[in-house]
Amino acid sequence: MVNFDASAPVIIGVGEASRKTVAGEWPAPRELAGAAIKVALADTGQRDAVAAAIDTIAAIRTFEDSGLSLGTGSPDNAPEAFGAAGGISAARLIYADVGGQSPQAMVNELAGDIRRGACDMAVLVAAEATGTAKRARKAGVTLDWSVVSETSFDNRLSTFPILSRTEIRHGIISMPLAYSLIENARRIGLGLDSDAYAWEMAALWSAFSAKAETRLHAQFPGFRSPEAMQSNDNANYPLTDIYRRWHVAQDAVDLGSAIILTSAGTARALGVPQDKWVWLAGAAGAAEPPLSERAVIHRSAALDFAIPAALDQAGLGPSDLGPVDIYSCFPCAVFAAVDSMQDASRALGDYTLTGGLTFFGGPGNGFAMYNIAAMVDALRQDGSKPAMVTANGGVMSKQAVGIYTATQPNIPYSGDVAKGYVLAPIPIDDAPQGKGRVLSFVRPAGKDGFGPATVLLETEGGARAMAMIDCPVDADLGNAVVDVTPGEKRHIAALVG
Predict the structure, then answer these.
(1) 420 pLDDT above the threshold of 90
(2) How far apart are CA 385 and CA 228, in angstroms?
(3) What is the reported pLDDT for 14?
(4) Are 152 and 128 members of one domain?
(5) Whole-angstrom distance, CA of residue 324 vs CA of residue 348
(6) How many structural domains does the chain have?
(7) Helix 331-341 to helix 301-314 angle, to the nearest 10 degrees?
(8) In the listed set 421, 446, 478, which residue is the last one of a domain according to the structure?
(9) Can you give the CATH number for the domain in which 463 is found?
């Protein structure tokens, strides 16, 4: 029998909250955060004792504070405001940096703090009211979600580039466009035509839609068949040559979530029932350069590092896992994680616990909070096998992975997160001249059809470059040879032959 590990980090409470659209009501994120905190406190079975022991509140950064202003304003100190709405306060306040990896990354970090004795009881909280903000804008209602505060806090402002200067110059100005480049690179690598690959995506997302129906707070539930995923109508309009509306993250949500972490010793001392505990067994994180500068485009080198590293830390292999939730902003993010797991034996729907950012809803940086909550639910119901959660930020740029168990791990969690910055960037040719081979491409869709394609190239000198090309809509540019002419604003390519 393993000796009781009093300093081991455990999750003891999770909470979720949502708000259905009600005329005349405009809930702020802090209200949803407060509701989720109260649910999480109650979930511990020792609400008052846990609330009194909290010394750290960490908040996931909202859309409004991530350079994607909704025009609503935000609290000067989000962790303080979110905590106050839930009836708690703490001396230590953290506001996480931008990226969908941040919930799992913060769990990994806080768990390490708990292991080292730097933290005793932490609340991690996220909330978005993007749906309300968009509804208010349509109604001509001005919202003010600001809260004045002069309290200091650890405000983590990320300097990690999501899109490079070259990518933006060549029209890659949104996540659907950027991820389409990954998606098309994968399709080209597999040797599939557009129709065959579309059905791969449709089958995966159809299975995910079925899972969303099992989650109480899913924002866009309802099963969609593969045929429905491929339908071409006003409700499923094309965004790019490879994506339609229901392929991508849906951010018009009203959601809050909270997770409470402490040590096993504190949980026992406070009388939190042990069947509430979920243990962190392994943790890892990794990052990559901007997409156009990566040696490999069609998969994730960061996940190739982080998933095996987290599993190795826990003394496990992919086949040992039970519940798995892969971050699912776009199909290629799931495919890449499956490739990194090196275990494709699961049914498609068994790579998610929530239904993903399309069907559960994509609340900005905070989506993985809901994956972790679902994972805790799953392990409490059946803890016979460990669980894994992955979280992704940027353009598959930043990854965080957690391995969880329902019982004390055989290998104690060290508190150290395995981290890697994977691969050096490929040089970018900012003045490409001559021939190059197309590694991937994307055509943006608009009201008047598809625009010129953006192509990602490998030049004859082995550098990377980007250009724009005007060619027939049905032309498959994968591995095509093009001739590039440099331009002041953007480079122009033409098909050779």
Answers:
(1) no
(2) 34
(3) 98
(4) yes
(5) 11
(6) 2
(7) 50
(8) 421
(9) 2.40.50.840
